[in-house]
Design a protein that fits this description.
By secondary structure, this protein is of the alpha+beta class. The protein has one domain: Fumarylacetoacetase-like, C-terminal domain (Fumarylacetoacetate hydrolase, domain 2). It has 6 helices and 14 strands. Strands 1, 2, 3, 5, 6, 7, 8, 11 and 12 form a 9-stranded mixed β-sheet that branches. Strands 4-14-13-9-10 form a 5-stranded mixed β-sheet, with no helix packed on it. The N and C termini lie far apart (about 45 Å).
Length: about 250
């Protein structure tokens, strides 16, 4: 897809979005993943939204196999999607929502594109316990490229209090307990995220370089979920307690 073709496709996707069609039917099974990432960037640029970071998804091997991919995927975090712990979402403003429990890693320095996990560790400023709130705006299972063009299901991200780098425990050993309406729904540890959450950042830095983009100081990076994704329903209260990091909560009303 050349630049003029890309511009026309972006216009087509924007028009479809205006009709509430986030996975344009005319583009089913037609996009490569690389073209989907290019459309993702241009759709956000065209919307005027301000990007503040990145999300890494499909970090678990089993999920990669489910979707027939050999690596994670990325999306973009937007300034108007940031929420503080305890935020109450309105159910009627969400499209088939769900949530993932993650660490949000905030960069203090620019990691190099070929950064090792050790390089990433040295560049981190602090880490938040976090939720990613996603929307199922189409069939991700069958149309992964369209999901990526639609910013990889991203709706918002919820941040608990930050922990500075010097006070961080080993993130691959950090355990999380996820509770929905007070009942424990899942437990896992940071090794579920590509072996270590910093591996997600290292992957992202290398992947972005292929598109002429990069991770920068000040970026918020959602590492990928410790556990599977859970649906969100009206009346739900969700909590994720990350040992040695902290707690993040949200509700749906």
């Amino acid at each position: 897809m050349n630049d003029s073709e890309l511009a026309a496709v972006v216009d087509e996707f924007m028009a479809a979005r205006g009709r509430g069609e986030y996975f344009p039917l005319a583009w089913f099974d037609r996009l490569s993943l690389d073209d989907a990432y290019r459309i993702q960037r241009h759709l956000i640029d065209k919307s005027g939204a301000r990007q503040v970071g990145w999300k890494v998804g499909l970090t678990a091997r089993a999920i990669q196999q489910q979707f027939g991919v050999h690596e994670p995927v990325f999306g973009r975090l937007l300034a108007d999607g940031r929420r503080d712990s305890g935020h109450a979402f309105r159910a009627d403003e969400l499209i088939a929502p769900g949530f993932e429990n993650e660490l949000c890693i905030v960069m203090g320095d620019d990691p190099v594109p070929n950064a090792t996990p050790e390089d990433v560790a040295a560049a981190v400023a602090y880490v938040h316990p976090a939720f990613e709130i996603i929307e199922t705006r189409g069939d991700l299972t069958r149309q992964l490229a369209l999901a990526l063009a639609d910013n990889a299901q991203q709706h918002s991200f919820v941040l608990g209090p930050a922990v500075e780098r010097a006070a961080l425990p080993a993130l691959d050993k950090v355990t999380v307990a996820v509770r929905i309406n007070g009942a424990e729904a899942a437990t896992a540890d940071g090794s579920a995220v590509l072996g270590h959450p910093y591996n997600a950042v290292a992957w992202l830095a290398a992947k972005l370089a292929q598109f002429g983009e990069r991770v920068k100081a000040g970026d918020f990076i959602m590492s990928g979920s410790f556990t599977r994704q859970f649906p969100l329903n009206r009346g739900d209260r969700i909590e994720a307690a990350f040992a040695g990091i902290g707690v993040v909560t949200a509700t749906v009303v």
